[in-house]
Amino acid sequence: MARFLFALALLAFTGTSATRAQQLTIPQLDWRTIRTQHFDIHYPAAAEEWTLDMATRIESVRDAVSRLVGSAPDARITVIVEDPGGESNGFAIPFTRDPVIFFWPTPPGPRSGIADSRGWAEILSVHEYAHIAHLTRPTRSPLRQFLAHLSPVSLGPVALKSPRWMSEGYATWVEGRLTGSGRPHGAWRAAILRQWALEGKLPSYGQLSSDRRFYGGSMAYLAGSAYLDWLVERSGDSSLVHLWRRMSARRNRTFNDAFAGVFAGYPADLYGRFTAELTGKALRAERIVDSALAAAPDSGVGRTVQALSWNTGSPALSRDGKLISLVVRGKDRPSRVVVWKTAAEPPDSAAIRARERMLRLDPEDVPAVQWRPRPKEAVAVLYPSGGVPYDEPRFLPSGEELLLVRATGRGDGATRPDLFIWNFRTGSVRRVTHGGALRHADPSPDGTHAVGDRCIEGICDVVRVDLRTGSLNVMARGSPRLVYDRPRYSSDGRTIAVAVQRAGRWRVATLDATTNGESTPRFVGPDDGANRYDPSFLAGDTALAVTSDATGIPNIEVVSIATGATRTLTLATGAALAPDVDREHGSVYFLRLHSSGFDLNVVPVDVTRPELAGALAAAPALEPATRIPPVERDTFTVAEPGASHSYGLGPREHRFLPTFAWTAEGKSLGLAIAGTDPVGRLTWVAQGLYGDRGTWRGGSLGAAWRGMRPLVGASIFYSEDHASRQHGGFAAPAALDIDYWGGLVRLELERDNLTNVHRLRLGASAGRMSSATSDRESRSLGFAEYHGGILLSPGEWRIAPSVGLLGQVGSTAGSSWTRGIVSGGAVVSHGKLGVRADAMFGAVSRDAPIAERFAIGGTMPPLFDPALFAQRVVMPALPAGLALGSRAAWYRIGLPGEGIRPYFWSASAGNRLRDWHHVVGLEWSYDFRGLWSVGFPNTLFTCGIGYSLSEPLKHETRGYVALSYRP
Q1: Which fold has domain 10-158?
Q2: Cα distance between residue 125 and residue 62, in whole Å
Q3: pLDDT digit string, tens, across residues 823-864
């Protein structure tokens, strides 16, 4: 059971963080399947080009990774290719019996630490399969083998014992070893480790797996892989395999003990030594840069315009150079687009007066030095819309409008970035494209068009966008191994500069903007093995400012379009990137990396820097404080996969799952059998529940078909609940005792637009119900239910109101009745502070049978749709039937977010709402959409504790826990 709960928490975390409230698969798409020797690959037809490219190498990737890791799973591996949010990511679920890999095919841009590769499909395959090969290594203990066989989920000892830094760091280490590229060979890992070391901000061992500071979540990959490099250099290439063998041995060992037996020291102690050596190497690297700058007029990174933190967005200059716009982000503040004046801020008269007064009162006091620029006053600020931030601002020719990118909902759970135009003088925002999937865009000099990179299903093209109509046409086509990023217009509109990834390297190219058809890229700059990207035209359109790692450090460089000659503008110790040119004043604005984020800096375009001539690009003695140069590796063998075929109902996965409840009503325990397919087209759940007579028990079989919209569901069930015999210290009226046989057919239509969600359900049910006053009398009902919510984000506030409406008509034991319920709620938050409030009011016909009247307390029916018993006012800390009536209302106030949260709950039921029952408590619950690929249906888990403030149970405390499933 402990292993199952651990896996359930892992799946809940994966489903929440990876999708950011999006579903992982969209079952109604046109899905197809490819089978290789060891993999079942499922993908939407629209992603076929990317998927076929990945599939040609995945078997050779498996062979190479398995040899290096020293193990391979016996089970076939399910691979899901899907693009829910246009993000560059993937994850693995390392169950030993049924491992699964998810690939999100959108390739990363060059600024990403995962962009240094020979192809996104290759590096993603290596990294995610490394998780499978590494974490599915089985135990060699007979006892633990037997227990694992009994468990509904199968996690091996390496998966259970490895800290996050080890699992992610090792997969990153493998990607470097096998491809000769990836994060271990990228300039970005070295930049972060070097700069953090120079500032004394490297994570402690306790922070290595989880750290809320800037880039803290990436340290498991970056510092973790570098630490493993260091360990392997000390103890040999076989040391890591020896560690996995010790962790999975017949003799049970903790991770620390297994580690110490291989590396002669505990991981925290050796990590301390590693960081000390890394800091020393970083200081030596800094001295190389400082010596090169000995005769320079400044520090090598120009002047700081604004000291900022977190992941500051790319700067954008207006045509006259008087305004600059960028996205400002903060750890606990919403992202916002700001427009500033480039001119220096006027003196702060209030600060001057305060300083003078201070010295008058205390002449010996010492005024603070001005060590950072004054915060700029914003000309305009654009906050997120519906909680979704705008990004990538670019000035239109008018100087009063900005072209922006913002994610939008497609309606089916997927999101795509679209273009918007913001007039920051009037505040109006106009949407330009619908479903455009444009990551970045730059307006033409006449303001009628824009050029952008459109990324759909793993392919990034260059497209021209009509800013009046939103129509698109392709200018340069990408492929799985040819990626375009951040195109920019020249000042005359005749040329487009764009970053292009090909053959494992980012280079800058130009396109002819005057052609009506597709244009062939012409590469600019030397073919010297360096990555160059982020192009921006200098005045005269004869040269480009770019980000280049030719020095081993990402720095700003000028490249001549005609000759390819280069000239370095910055020499940073960390990184300088994202240049934009002020053509009127001859300067380049850019972002400078530090351990808390990015500052906005500026440097004259005519400055001359000494050349490091790659002194840091190839300095083995200073690795990993310097970049490990890419290494030529054998390309993975290409083998054509078998022919694809229609997905149909998909392969079936069956899983036995425990279900249970322990509440004020009593205890119950049961078993569920879930049948799913990898994308969730057809799912079913059969479950049986047995326990105390005073709580829900019985059996049910339900199924849902998601291969079309709306969803079609059906179920049959038998369930009994004898509230008069419950354990809560309160005997409900015997008239509430029921034995219920029935069936349900329902339709469900959901529209997820990212900022607002709407769900409509229609259902009809027929059955028989026995109670204390009747025996197997018929019960039938029909219902219509609507739930909707919207997210509003005025300024730095987030307000999320929601509403629910339920209408029912039915007949029970020959008596007709109608019931209506209205519910609503809101989450209001500002920064870290927030509150959540929910309420409900319901009424049923006054002459309705007792069983149809509202009853306070008890749990939600676990074996059939809760809409069939909407009269239950759920509160698992109270026994069922604490109050009855034709009217009911409740309200609840608590804290928003995940984890254990306090709450205050109050409810009343009766013909008049007079007596209220109050409960305070703590609760943790999650309701996550099924992870169908590994056989998990929709799952609802709740646990908590409640303290009653009202009679007849005043001062009584009860805990509760329940786990249930739905198809």
Answers
A1: Zincin-like (3.30.2010)
A2: 9
A3: 999 999 998 899 999 999 999 999 999 999 999 999 999 999
